[in-house]
Structure formats: C-alpha cells, structure tokens
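input
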Amino acid sequence: MSQHTMERRVTPLERFAPTLAETASVRGRWSRKVAADLVGFGDMIIVLLALAVPCMLLTSLADWFPRWLEMIRSGLLACLITYACFQHWGLYDTSRMTAFPVNADRIIISVVIAMLSVIGITVPVGSHDIDMMFTWPIIWFSAASALLISYRLLMQDVLGSLSRARVFDERVAVYGAGKIAERVETYVREAGNGMRFAGTFDDRTDASRLDDSAPTQNGGLVDLIEAGREGRVDRIIVALPQAADSRLEQITRELDQLPVTVHAVTHFSSDLLARPGGHKVSSLGPVGLINVKERPLADWAPIVKRAEDVLISATLLILTLPITLIIALMIKATSRGPVLFRQRRRGLNQKVIEVLKFRSMTVQENGGEVRQATKDDQRVTAIGWFLRRSSLDELPQLANVLIGEMSLVGPRPHALVHDEKWGEMLEQYANRHQVKPGITGLAQVRGLRGEARTPKDIQDRINADLEYIGNWSLWLDLSIIARTLGTVIGAKNAY
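output
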C-alpha cells in the first residue's frame, strides 16, 4: 500500500498560526486532562486570592505590605496542600466531565487541612497575638471554602455544557468487522462516557468471511489511515479473528504512522508483545485490549511545544533581522534569481507545505527530480556554500514555525520526491509525520545530516526521529536547540 496520499496544497487560512485553543484541541476536541488541570490551577489561585480577605479585614496596608513575602509563602503552601487533597479525593476525575465533582464536604476538609498546616509551620503577618493567630486562618478558611465551592459549581456547569457539546469526545474506530467491533460499537454508543464510535473498517469484502452481526463497514485500511491523518479518529482498535493473527503485526505497523492511540484485542497471540518497550493491557468496557502505541504529544504537550515555538521563533526572527537583510543583499549581488527558495515538503500527517530557505543554488528543483547536494556541488552559488555550511539558509524557516507549519525541533522535512522514494524503501519512514517537521532535530545533532548515500543513512535518521517522537519533553527540545549551535559550528556533512 502506498505510504502517501494525494498531495494537497495548504490554503492561506490554514497557514495562519494556530491559536492556543486550536493547539489544545484536535479538530475541535479538547483534552480532558488539560481541562481538569486548568480547573486545578484555578483552585490554587482562589486559595491564594482568599488570603487578601483577612488582610483587608484585620490589618491595614501599612501592616501587611512589609510582610508580603511571608504571606505569599503561607498562601503557596496552602495552595499545594489543597491541590494535593483534591487530587487524592478524585476532584479532578477526567471521566466525569459531564458532572465534574464538587463535593463540598471534601473541599472544606481539604481547606481545613491546609490551614492547620499553615498554622503549624508559620503565622501570617508574624503576629504573636493569640486572637490574630486563630482569627486570621478562620477568615481565610471561610473565604477560601466559599469561593472554591462557588467556583467548582461554575466549572461543573461549564464543563458539563462543553461535554454535552461533545468537545471532549474521543473518537474510536475498529479495524475488523466482527463480533468485537459490534461489542465496541454497542458499548461506546450506550455507555455515554465521552466516546464516539467513528466506524468499522475492514479489507475483507467476501460476505462469507464476515460475521452476520458485523457492523456496516466505513471502508478499508486505506480509508482508516486517511481518517487518522485528517483527525477524525483518536483511538483505533485492531480486532481481527484469531485466524488472522499473522496480519496483526502488519496492520499495526501501518497504523504506527498515525498520531493516534492504537490497541489490539488481547485474544491475539503474536510477536506483537515482543516489540521493544512491551505493552500495557487495558480494556474498553467488555473488550480486553493491548496498548500498542500511545498518541504522541498528547494533553499539555502540544500547548507547551507550540508556546516554545512561538516565543523562541519570534525572538530569533527579531534578533536575526539585520543578518537576514545582509544575506538577502548578498544573494542578489552574487547571483541571479529570487532571494527565497520555496520547496514543497510534507508536514504533519503528510500534508504538503512550502518550506522557505535562502536560495543557495543556481537551480530551484521542486519537481519530480531533486538531486541532493554533494561535496563541491557546482550548483552552489558563491555565497551559497557559506549559507549551507553555517545553516543560515534555514533562517527563513522561522517563519514556517511562527505560522504553525513547522516546529523548531522535529524530524527534518525532505523534498517530496525523496519522501516517495524513501517511503517505498523503508516501512517506518512515514511514521516521522506524526508530528510537525523541525528546523533541527535529534538526528541532526547526532551528525545524521547532509547527503544520504545508502538506505542505512536514512534508517539511522528514522530511528533518531522516532526516538525523539516517543520521548519528547521540553527539556529534550531545549537541549537539542543548544546542541544545534555546536553542530552548526562543526558543519559536518553540510555542503
């Protein structure tokens, strides 16, 4: 099966930078964990703000302002203890978005524990007056409890409305039209647990090979992969009969390229369980599952990564503006042609984007044949050799990052013709497109850049890219950005 779908040009509207809301969601669907964490952040802010009530009632500005640091310390301690108690008692249960828990009794007990802890460790405003020592936390406790209960009732209404609008729904599809698909569909439709059945897919068309009770098919594997790329599926369950056990590894490998969670029904006995990293076992209602892969960059990860991209790329664009103008003048002065070179490459979910670079060659190959740059390449311009060795030709891609087509760190995008060639050569190649491509990446800081002469060269890059996707963290991104400078200075394999 082809690794790629038909190319589609990105519209001007799609080139605008995603908003925070768009980053937090997937095609209008929001992460439950992010929503619950935001409520938790609000809880802690309320406990801290409630501290202002006894300040205003019991003291004057002149009394408490000199001791603001001591009060903030007491407030932060109470915030953390309250949050820990809420977490322990399930007040951030993401399975209850339709009726987000309020539990006034647990809220009051949590605040009492927090206040008693504060009294035991420090006394606000440093007073040694016994009345002040107890009056202060009582007023703080009363204000915090009232505000928290009111806030949680409001959040219960807001999250309930969002849940009824199905913004938290997780869309579940099944590959394999059989009894398992029927059971999953029945459970999802009847349970009312924030899931939506996205369809049954199967490549078997012979009626004699399908169960009589099999749900209506929505297409085959190609259609399922397309649905995953377009964001219409969040979770896929592979549920083939035991007779098709040998196909499980093949199907799951095909699905590895999608930014979705993949499960397999646990009645399988195959080499799947021996794959690197092992697999956890879970269930969906009455169906036992093996967790084959998790969605990359889920919950807070896309928000954090997008914030990182916007802040750093905007800063770098401003700081490098003088360098950018000088490079543009030098390109125009030393060769004929445009300053910028636009090349079509594949981005997230294999959507075609136009990647910007400073033109460093006398040719602008962007069609069915793109020859990789080699050592002493005669196509490189007088200034081009310096731009390529210093990687300054990549500077315009900061604009791609700012508008949301690329990321600062991620798998490097390749020309479309190379994507097609290497995608047919290596099965895991398409898995790189689960995240946005990057200006730099783990492969680049390991020296895996420049001309790819053998399949092993590409395989090494794929391995590094998949390692990055599976282990992403903000610290990993920042360390790669820092290491990129040293790699650029060394200029190994860059020509």
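quick obs: Residues 1-26 have pLDDT under 50 and may be disordered.
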